[in-house]
Amino acid sequence: MTSSSLPGPDRAPLAYRIGYGEDAHRLARPEDGGRPLVLGGVQVPSERGAVAHSDGDAALHAVADALLSGLALGDIGQYFPDTAAEWRGMDSRVILERALGLVQERGYAPLNVALVVTLDRPKLGPLRAEIARSLAALLALPGGEVGVSFKTSEGLAPDHVQTRVTVLLGRLEPGDADV
Ligand SMILES: Nc1ccn([C@@H]2O[C@H](COP(=O)(O)O)[C@@H](O)[C@H]2O)c(=O)n1
Ligand SMILES: C[C@@]1(CO)OP(=O)(O)OP(=O)(O)OC[C@H]1O
What PANTHER family does the annotation carry (predicted)? Predict the structure, then answer.
């Protein structure tokens, strides 16, 4: 594959930034406060779900933090404090939309995203394509620009879901530094 046929935007970005985000939520049964398990905006059949203030979507939280970190914009807890009643049970897609909007206001867009979910059970492989499609749609990216990996903790963290995300951001519009 030549560089001109690589996937990505149809023009070269003027600047690049790398972002990184993580999240972790304890898993519990519904009677112990666990919410339905949702990852990347996709409902995951599971006996246990995240204990969280919001819907507990650890994948979307890590993607949103990765976007914010790439432009040094802080983290989602600053925009959506877990002490605020208005965010209780919220759909984490709202968090991602806000983070993406802040990045776009500065002329940047995500170019590709890599997500790792560490979870012992259930197996997520059958949902890989659906989670990748969901993330791609939320980020306005082609599906091929979203990598989704799953790991078990090998029994080291059986009661948590953990996520890690890297994102490459590109600035497609000229800013003050380019004119
Ligand atoms: N919740 C999970 C965790 C892992 N997988 C898949 O299992 C394979 C082996 O994972 P290891 O952590 O033992 O290396 C790997 O292919 C994962 O994609 C899964 O589907 N769901
Ligand atoms: C999303 C927020 C806000 O509802 O709460 P949680 O759902 O608990 O999630 P977390 O990843 O711990 O941090 C960000 C919070 O501010």
Answer: 2-C-METHYL-D-ERYTHRITOL 2,4-CYCLODIPHOSPHATE SYNTHASE, CHLOROPLASTIC
